[in-house]
Amino acid sequence: MNESVVSTNGLLIVALLACLPLVFEYRRYLRVSFPTALGFLLAAMAVGALVTMQHLEQISPLFQRRDRFDQIMVPVASLGFYLLLVPFAIRLVRAWLFDDLTEDERRGGVEGVRGWLRGGNLLCAVGIPLTGWYAYGYSPWALLLLVLTALVARPVLAGSTAGGDGGVSELPQTDESLKNERERVLRLLEEGAIKPDEASELLSALTAPSSGAQHQAGASSVNSQMTPRQRLAFVGALLLIVGFVMPWYSMNLGEELEHAAGKLNQSFGDLFPGGMPRNFSLPSVPSLRTGNVSFSGADIQQGLGWLVLLCGAVAAFMVAVPSLIRERSLHRMLVLGFLGLGAILLLYLIGSRLRLVSYGMLVMIAAYACIGIGAADVLSRRRNATL
């Protein structure tokens, strides 16, 4: 290990110690106890330190040529990326799976979006793209889009399923109309137009909800409750975002050059089974020591990485909120279509460069598996409901 990387690792240790006071911010942002916040912080620091040291080892031949400012800021940005990403992911999991929300975050529509885009969420929305871009070269606009989508997804879904502001504004009108009807019945009773027994029956009819209203309330209650497997589909959506920014492929340029030279020698050996011509020889390839080059989903040519992300996200959305598409056959076709297309593209990308596949691909496979389990559960329940 060269001197530059050693000094950078020492700087990383100092940065880790300086991050310990963040436990109070973790406690406030995640709304957990002090020991739990400390555990989350230590986990984020451990992940950030391990990934940062691995990243510096991979880019060490190029990293030592950078100026002193970059040698300081790259590990700091890399550590900051995971110190923001880990609590942000935990916050989303607690909100979606355990309903850990503030009053503002529970609202739908514009008010809900405002409730999510404040405080620690807003800091993560700005910090994650900036640190990911500076430390790893990720597209800041792609990361910003992913983070904002994750933040506004719940209030947008809440607004669409609740019917927006219109559903809320109808309640006072219904109560007012019931009050007027009761007053009218009492007035008719005082005038002698109806008998006491008839007035009692009318008041009871006004008080009891209609069967249609009861059925609608029951249906909305069932639709608003997510089964454990539907929640697993949301976990898959989170894994999609995490896996998309991770390395899908990783290659060492020196090793690839040696591998290509070996393939060339093998090809010429197949052309000349009896041995090479006397006056012909292949040049020897010098052994090169280079760092690894990683490619995330956003770096895949022809936008195939983005298409894999989009197909999985749309499938997860339709699994989480199946009531948005009332036609069951259409819902089934769209879920299976987007999920199948994304899975086929993912398998194609894995098979085409299997030797270069990195851990980001494994996260994407896990994401699609979670979404597939949730989709199978939702489609099965909707099919049984029609029988």
Describe the structure.
With 387 residues, the chain is mainly α. It has three domains: 1-162, no CATH class; 165-208, no CATH class; 227-277 and 288-387, no CATH class. It has helices at residues 3-18, 23-30, 34-58, 60-63, 68-97, 103-106, 109-116, 119-136, 140-162, 164-191, 196-207, 211-224, 228-245, 253-271, 304-320, 328-352, 359-386, and strands at 247-252, 292-296. A two-stranded antiparallel sheet has the order 1-2.
Quick rundown:
With 387 residues, this protein is mainly α. It is built from 17 helices and 2 strands. The radius of gyration is 30 Å and the shape is elongated.
Please describe the topology of this protein.
Elements: H1 3-18, H2 23-30, H3 34-58, H4 60-63, H5 68-97, H6 103-106, H7 109-116, H8 119-136, H9 140-162, H10 164-191, H11 196-207, H12 211-224, H13 228-245, E1 247-252, H14 253-271, E2 292-296, H15 304-320, H16 328-352, H17 359-386
Antiparallel strand pairs: 1-2
Helix pairs in contact: 1-3, 1-5, 2-3, 3-5, 5-8, 5-13, 7-9, 8-9, 9-10, 10-11, 13-15, 13-17, 15-16, 15-17, 16-17
From the structure above, extract its key features:
387 residues; mainly alpha; 3 domains; two-stranded antiparallel sheet
**Class per helix and strand makeup:** mainly alpha
Q: Number of folding domains?
A: 3
Helical content band: over 70%
What's the shape?
Answer: elongated
Integer average pLDDT: 76
The number of helices is: 17
- Report on the biggest sheet: 2 strands, antiparallel
